[in-house]
Amino acid sequence: MLNLRYCTQITDAGLKHLSTLEELTNLELRCLVRITGIGITSIAIDCPSLIELDLKCCYSVDDAGLWALSRYSQNLRQLTISYCQVTGLGLGHLLGILRCLQDVKMVHLSWVSIEGFEMAL
């Protein structure tokens, strides 16, 4: 487990340094306000063993991050994306591809409409 919660100075470039942690299973990135879908893509590609990922209040994480998780994080079981900038399209894609997900916390997704939630679920 690696807990980087509230390390608000970490950027996408900083996340790239986690590429050597191929066996990382649990990553907490809560409130890393400087990371985007680019950083999440790095994590998804470089940490294929990831089972739990917390992105709550990573305000700039968007659909690009979800698409990368859908493609590269096939072991992901728990995901928190509350307060991220994801849309119904990204959410639907993620939930449609990652059948292994058991728990997705998604509070206050202001970019997802009711119709978007209906399509995703």
From TrEMBL:
Pfam family membership, one:
DUF7885
Q: Which residues form the F-box/LRR-repeat protein 15-like leucin rich repeat domain?
A: 2-87
A Gene Ontology biological process in which this protein takes part is:
SCF-dependent proteasomal ubiquitin-dependent protein catabolic process
Q: Where are the transmembrane segments?
A: none
Taken from the UniProt entry, a GO cellular component term is: SCF ubiquitin ligase complex
Which InterPro entries does its entry note?
Answer: FBXL15_LRR (IPR057207), Leu-rich_rpt_Cys-con_subtyp (IPR006553), LRR_dom_sf (IPR032675)
Q: What name is this protein filed under?
A: F-box/LRR-repeat protein 15-like leucin rich repeat domain-containing protein
